[in-house]
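Category: protein sequence paired with discrete backbone structure
Discipline: computational structural biology
Format: plain text, a pair of labelled lines
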Amino acid sequence: MTDQPSFGPNEPPPGSPHLIRHFRQILLWPLQLEFQGGDAGVEPWRILERGDSPWSRGECNITYDPDKTRERHYKEFVSFLPYVQRFLYGDSRARAGGNDHADSNAPMQVFRRRDIATLRITLQPGDKPILLDVSHVDLVFFFDVDVVFLKVEIYTDDLPWDTALELLHRFGRAYPSGWDASGQGVHNAYRSEWLGVDGKVLAASDSENREKFLCFVNENRAPCLASHWAYLLRPLVLEHEGEEAEVRYRQLEYHRMPMMAYLALDNPRELTPDDFIHLGLINAFRPGDPLPRRDPAVAEFESRYCDDRYWTDTDSGPNTRAICTGNTLVVVGEAQSNYFRNEVHGILAQFRHQFMLLFLIAHFHRAALLVFSDRMMDAISELNIRSTKSQMRFRKHIRDSFEAFLRFTHRYWFHELSERAQVQGLFHRCTTYLGNDVKYRDVKEEIRDMSQYLDSDTQRRQSNTVVRLTVVTTFGLIGTVVTGFLGMNLLAEADASLGLRFIYFVGVMLAASVLTLFTVAKSKPLSDFLEALSEGRVGSGAALASLRRVWHREDA
């Protein structure tokens, strides 16, 4: 098996009318973090800073970059509003107290591994393997939210159109969705291999291992990741894996990872409407399959998903089209355009930085909301109203989630992130098609219902306490009257015999008890009478009528 594709470096194969001069794909997959022993207060990225970890902290402050990339990161920085800048990069050095690592106080923490240099992928059985350079493999963490993003960026030049569509469709699936008659996974790539800087294979996919995935689901009621994706995430370990781990992760969304793509063609105007639909809806329809014309996503594709503010469809250009469907963000443009291919000032720089960050923020919002919703479900599932300990754990869980949701709302949740029209427009499209606003309202309502339940339960407990205290006070009134009566010396029997004094005591106690119990039994009409008197709206006739209710029982 050769490492080189069967087509020439500058010529597309037969049946592929387009050649992509520069192809780039970014995967952003959200995962929920689980902590050993339930300790969610630790910072999960601390285990990545150990000596045996392949990860190292990725600097996200522009002052740490070499001179040749400072301007690129500066343009990225000033593209966002101030509160988004603080979210992405942290506060200034002055507020950090002179800390040398000023970006360490950023709510977003990035870690990168540099041991993976190349992806070798075979899309279907019998195909030639394709080599793609790996630009970045990152893990992105966030303060106060148990979410981590796996970010993988790959690129290559001179890739045929049909091959690019197959690559976009097949690469980025965490596990096979099924198997064909020959036992090969469907929809996913036939074989994927991570190669190190020396060309050695570090990890390979195992989608053909059907028994592994079936047994894992049967035993754990959870999906198992393909081996090459699990390798990237170590030392983080899947939730139900048998090996020991301080921090585990679980799947939040569909196994198809959210994806961004950048395609530079000689003449993007030659692409047909069906080409753009297959490209934009690559997650929904397989390349080459006929399109369902009555599907609203197909019939209204351009109006729904295309940002054509820089698409003129003329020879003079510009001819740059952005397609955003929520789970995908694709940018198509002219390879001959210096601005489109420019990695510092042009669209390529914006795609890798501004566009990637807006895509990340939109999916982070959704992932965080899914985590909060999952917490609510877990809290309800573990609640046992017959167990006092279970009720206490439930109240603590809900109050902690409520506090975390408040911090998320004030620190991370926003609708505007830039004054630049295209950046803000793409962010709005992405959040709209992800349904973030609807999900936010649903989670907020869930947490509010839980909080109201806790408040009502607290009031119920307080009411029961007041009732008990009232009963105690009422019965205590008997003893108070008895002792007070004897203490008044109304009957000077202090020197009387013990038997006579006991008879007096029992008589007074019985009389006081009858009077107190009678008052409790008739408390409702007496309360109405006193209320009428306090409002000054009762005369002698009404007073007598009200008092008659004390002695005569009235029908409802």
Summary: The longest strand covers residues 19-35. The chain has a mean pLDDT of 83. The radius of gyration is 35 Å.
